Amino acid sequence: MDIHVLQQVVHKTRDARRKQTLPKLSLAERDTLIKKYHPDFREHAYRTIRFGPNAGDKTVVELAALLEGMSQVPDDLDLTPSYVTDVLVVGGGGAGCAAALHAHAAGAKVILATKLRLGDSNSVMAQGGMQISVAPEDSPVTHFLDTLKGGLMHNDHQLLKVMVEEGPAIADWLIKLGVLFDRDQDGNLHVKKGGGSSKPRLLTCSDYTGLEIMRVLKDEVLNQKIQLLEFCAAVELLSDDQGRCTGAVFKDLDNGRFVVVSAKAVILATGGIGRLHIQGFPTSNHFGATGDGLCLAYRMGAKLVHIDTFQYHPSGAVYPEQLIGALVTEGIRSEGGHLVNAKGDRFVNELDTRDVVSSSIIRECEEGRGIRTMAGRVGVWLDTPLLDVEHGPGTVQKHFPAMVRQFERFGIDISKDPVLIYPTLHYQNGGVKIDTNAETGIANLFVAGEASGGLHGRNRLMGNSLLDLMVFGKRSGLTAAARAQSM
Ligand code: MEZ
Fold this sequence. Notes:
Residues 86-466 form the FAD-dependent oxidoreductase 2 FAD-binding domain. The protein is an alpha/beta fold.
């Protein structure tokens, strides 16, 4: 059936739904829903249907094979360094740039190496905003509690405390560097409410917050003349005879040669694992998100935490084919966008945490209330035109210019028509265990950002990733610089 015909049910029932409010789930109902339908649980129905009864083990085996894989570095590689530095940062996204800038500002000689180009990362694709408690009616304590609830109470309290408390200073730092956060008519920072949050706390730059932050951070890395090694993939960490990290081996993707960098401290800021399509899901992640830092740190003996839990963002595009898995920002739901099944009914509180919303979308599809495209993909509607009602005609364009443009390229006008969505693999909730200075327990090895774990518990609260990158990027950079200077 043509996608435009499929959309009619949404159009027909739109008026009735506008008046509809949904009761919140009780804790017991919520638990049952997540256990039954969320992909992270072994008994999850979707996995059984897609991969058969042993599917739970499939992911475990895939991850283990990745972590225990053979080294790409030949035993007889000449380890004479091509570069020598105080601090080596691996990764050119938000955490890597923040780490490099702070280590440099603290007086360390820094090299930033990245597999693709500086800035190519998930950070650049972050749309919905950054949670920081800057509003007068908000506080770091409320931010802490919202995050803990979202993380199913598994969050590392110390990491979380540091993140929420340092948020406001991070906002000041980014503003000083030139980030143009949205402001109200009086010039105050404008905060929006995000899913799973009890207060408006999202700082945004329209629907391209990550892009704007990365524009500024990239410029600053270049302005500070921090040495860059682009198109260099980290393939092994180096250590001395006491197990201390002493640098890394890279593969230069231009010529296939190995490059050895000797460093007094190494910061891994390599991001997540989405491009490995855990459990066969599409992903919102960039092409470089292949779990590199996770493997490198694991092979050095670092501990991993919550590595059995991944976040499936509720709204990944299902149609058109070229956008499968692409992020449809949660910001649309924060502004009143409804989720609607094939009967035209809403079925979940759209502003609940991501695990609950994703589970309920999967439930609708598994129980036959999804919408099937001609290509056989299934999803539910995210009814975006409700935005018009709240803000007046044409404002979808103003509020979500990046999203509107992304769909316009394929002849879809999201200011009129709903978008077909299904959960997409979005975020690695767990990762390498770190302490509040991003240290791993392996001397002189630091991990910051999505490659690390503990902070977000078993389910990251939306909008907390950008802050995580900045806070632990900074802490890793400052501690690594101090360590290098003391050696
Ligand atoms: O934190 C995120 O992942 C986020 C805000 C994404 C989005 O929906 O825009």
